[in-house]
Recover the amino acids of this structure.
DNA sequence: ATAATATATTAGAATATGCTAATATATTGA
DNA sequence: TCAATATATTAGCATATTCTAATATATTAT
């Protein structure tokens, strides 16, 4: 079973890397294909693919093949849920003081 | 100047490391001295100090010397603010779809 | 089937991170 | 001042990450 701790930790791993956050940031404006991400982030194609794989494993993005291309999209439901849970913990601590 | 991107990235670096998240987790129940954190996390004293230094640099904790001891506390204001800003971005994207 | 395009995977070098052991500094009390 | 306790720093090794270059796979069109 995965604890909230593990998930937050994975989330942090995802956005804690500069190139990965660059990719996440690019996805805020909507789903993008790998090529589009390569253009937008100025990272090499293999590197983008490698980081997308990690982002997918951490649950931050989802992918969908569309013919020749693969479109990656922010998994906003998951992110939002995680952020909400973490915010709740932080807020609880804040009020306690 | 520090952008939101940089800050979120630093935040991720902070909680993206297993031992560091362990420390952050221990701090959710209130400020603790280094010794207390060493006990609670079962990590070595130098390691805890090293990670606390990083957590301090990323803005996740603050420290305050109390005589012989140093008490570390979660910087909940900063965390809460960051989470709120990130949540806003994610929510905006979520609604856009 | 073959060529063209998009994406993924792999191997290996470069760099960064995490850890332990040893040592240094800071504070307090005798 | 000296010993005791708490914390911080440093050096060096082990491991993990990041990156590039080369190659593999998948899809589409001819």
């Amino acid at each position: 079973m995965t604890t909230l701790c593990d998930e937050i930790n994975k989330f942090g791993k995802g956005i804690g890397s500069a190139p990965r956050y660059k990719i996440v940031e690019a996805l805020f404006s909507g789903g993008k294909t790998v090529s589009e991400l390569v253009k937008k982030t100025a990272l090499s194609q293999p590197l983008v693919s490698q980081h997308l794989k990690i982002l997918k494993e951490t649950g931050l993005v989802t992918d969908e093949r569309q013919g020749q291309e693969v479109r990656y999209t922010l998994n906003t439901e998951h992110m939002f849920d995680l952020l909400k849970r973490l915010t709740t913990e932080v807020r609880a601590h804040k009020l306690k003081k």
The longest strand of chain A covers residues 61-66. The interface with chain B takes residues 5, 8-9, 11-18, 21, 25, 28-30, 74, 76-77, 79-80, 83-84, 86-87, 89-91, 93-94, 96-97 of chain A (CB under 8 Å).
